[in-house]
Amino acid sequence: MLEQFKKYIIDNTGLSENEYSELEHLVYLLEVKKGTVLLKENQICNRAFFVCKGMLRSYTIDEMGKNHIIQFASENWWIADRSSFYFDEPAELFIDVIEDAVVVYIHKDFIKAAEKLSGKFARFNTLALQKNIRQMQKRINYLLAASAEKKYLDFIETYREITCRIPLQMIASYLGITPESLSRVRKELARKNFKP
């Protein structure tokens, strides 16, 4: 699994094999069971997780105890509470494991060392943060203004590879709609012969 992470880093960030070898001591592997909570609200998020196998999610819990899912992360996706990770603020999110998983995690010292070694890595990290901002802005717009059908179709586009692995009640939570509304949307799309 560490080889999978190494390949991802070298293929995507511009780090060379030699540069990566200087950072290997800052890379940690963790096997986690379904249901494991990796981050709780109000903790400091000092780790960013890269999923090698399985699936994680981030979410908030409102005053009524209802979960609101922010992100799913499956193979080759990153997940963290970025505000907490970058600014050392108490986390607003929970992160837990929804399928048995193998993850690699890094601390900020990995990112600082990688940026010092390689301007390409620094540009990769900046672009990754910008893409995250763009995705979150798009998500907010959908949550506020899009129909349930449009939200669901966008979800399928974003998570095409893993849609069938995610329980429907979690998809509804991510979309900000009730499970009953999601069921109606799915029935209507099936009636139109839509196949995800």
Automatic annotation (TrEMBL):
Top-level taxonomy: Bacteria, Pseudomonadati, Bacteroidota, Flavobacteriia, Flavobacteriales
Protein name: Cyclic nucleotide-binding domain-containing protein
Span of domain Cyclic nucleotide-binding: 31-111
Classification via Gene3D superfamilies: Jelly Rolls (2.60.120.10)
Pfam families membership: cNMP_binding (PF00027)
